[in-house]
């Protein structure tokens, strides 16, 4: 008996998302992020039905949309989620991503949480925050800075 209901080596929560052209998305994640393809299963039509990848110590899964199973693709604009990739060089990853066809959502910058981060939308339609934690910031300092930032957004 294990302490976790998940398979050995798996976290209890793993993300699965659909990607526009999942095969191209897999190549993008390998080339740009250095992700590892762990497993890939193609459907009878040749499209990716399910793939498992690993980025550092984190697994994630993806596949093509399957409307008959109520699994839809990413929206044309925006996203209802963001994946955060913690990397030692967000500037370089951001530049590689944009060069490989990603859209810059927000340029890499130092932010009030003590992180250096930028946001892209990859060619498959997925929103990624590329981040590095540079300094610890107190919860009160983050709350004050966040309140100030939100007030500036309303102005």
From TrEMBL:
<protein>
    <submittedName>
        <fullName>PhnB protein</fullName>
    </submittedName>
</protein>
<dbReference type="InterPro" id="IPR029068">
    <property type="entry name" value="Glyas_Bleomycin-R_OHBP_Dase"/>
</dbReference>
<dbReference type="InterPro" id="IPR037523">
    <property type="entry name" value="VOC_core"/>
</dbReference>
<dbReference type="Pfam" id="PF00903">
    <property type="entry name" value="Glyoxalase"/>
</dbReference>
<dbReference type="InterPro" id="IPR004360">
    <property type="entry name" value="Glyas_Fos-R_dOase_dom"/>
</dbReference>
<feature type="domain" description="VOC">
    <location>
        <begin position="10"/>
        <end position="133"/>
    </location>
</feature>
């Amino acid at each position: 008996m294990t302490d976790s209901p998940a398979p050995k080596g798996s976290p209890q929560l793993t993300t699965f998302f659909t990607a526009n052209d999942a095969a191209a998305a897999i190549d993008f994640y390998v080339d740009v992020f250095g992700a590892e393809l762990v497993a890939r299963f193609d459907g009878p039509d040749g499209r990716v039905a399910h793939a498992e990848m690993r980025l550092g110590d984190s697994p994630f899964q993806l596949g093509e949309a399957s409307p008959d199973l109520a699994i839809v693709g990413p929206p044309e604009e925006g996203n209802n989620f963001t994946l955060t990739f913690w990397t030692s060089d967000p500037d370089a990853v951001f530049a590689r991503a944009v060069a490989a066809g990603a859209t810059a959502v927000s340029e890499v910058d130092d932010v009030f949480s003590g992180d250096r981060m930028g946001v892209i939308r990859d060619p498959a339609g997925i929103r990624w925050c590329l981040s590095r934690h540079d300094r610890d910031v107190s919860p009160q300092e983050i709350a004050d800075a966040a309140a100030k930032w939100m007030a500036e957004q309303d102005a």
